[in-house]
Specification:
Shape: globular
Helix content: over 70%
Largest sheet: none
Strand content: under 5%
Radius of gyration: 24 Å
Structural class: mainly alpha
Bound molecules: zinc ion
Number of helices: 11
Length: 246
């Protein structure tokens, strides 16, 4: 039963009709993770400790704000702000006392690591509690996908005859396949996803080309065929984002 937590969203993604089933899985996961962080169940001290330390990336702090739970977010960010302010004060005061005691903090050589303040701030700026949670769960999705791929011929067929993947998820599948498949099975899987990418990129290229040709008066009266949404579908293939819905 426990494995269904991961196999259900994986199957939902595979059954979707978009340009990348793994983007569908990831987008849903992102929506539920953002909503969960501001839910009442979440206001536990140990989790608060993690959000205080890791903070949020630009995209996710904006998504949290857009949830409209001003009190919940206000309480969470007040705690984080205080935590980070205290940490910074402590680092700055230990830097000052080292400077007073004559240690040459500012005469740093190229090979020496940057100051503790820089190191700390860089780490905080680069971390995001929500990104971390999503990445960890997405790893479980990949594991569930390969488990299903090995035992379910239907999943094999969907992988083979689907619309391919975005570039990012193609790379993730290609690389993580080594963890779950061996020998001939690994080679066959990589061949299948590569052939699918090739075929589907040609399809999207042709759609996008026709989309641009439709701006030419000579083709103005020709049918659009499958090209009306070729531009957002191309952006999804290249970058894994849907510009029309975000
Ligand atoms: Zn994707
Ligand atoms: Zn993030």
């Amino acid at each position: 039963m426990k494995e269904q937590i991961y196999t259900i969203p994986v199957m939902d993604g595979l059954n979707s009709d978009g340009e990348c089933p793994f983007c569908v899985m990831r987008n849903k996961l992102e929506d539920t993770t953002v909503a969960y962080v501001l839910s009442p169940a979440y206001m536990e001290v140990d989790v608060r400790g993690e959000t205080n330390a890791q903070g949020f990336c630009r995209e996710h702090i904006a998504r949290l704000y857009a949830q409209g739970n001003s009190l919940g977010l206000g309480l969470m960010l007040h705690s984080q702000l205080k935590h980070q302010h205290d940490a910074l004060k402590e680092l700055l005061s230990s830097q000052d006392s080292s400077a007073r005691s004559g240690r040459k903090l500012f005469a740093r050589k190229e090979t020496e690591p940057s100051s503790p303040v820089s190191q700390y701030m860089k780490k905080y700026n680069a971390s995001c509690y929500i990104c971390g949670r999503i990445d960890a769960t997405f790893e479980r999705y990949l594991e569930a996908f390969f488990m299903l791929y090995k035992k379910d011929p239907e999943v094999r067929k969907k992988t083979e005859s689907g619309k391919g993947f975005c570039f990012n998820h193609f790379l993730q599948l290609y690389e993580s396949a080594e963890k779950y498949l061996k020998g001939d099975e690994l080679a066959a899987f990589r061949q299948i996803i590569t052939a699918s990418m090739d075929q589907n990129l040609t399809r999207v290229e042709d759609d996008l080309e026709w989309f641009t040709q439709k701006f030419d008066y000579r083709y103005a009266n020709e049918p659009w065929k499958n090209s009306r949404d070729a531009l957002p579908r191309t952006i999804l293939k290249l970058k894994g984002i849907k510009p029309d819905t975000k």
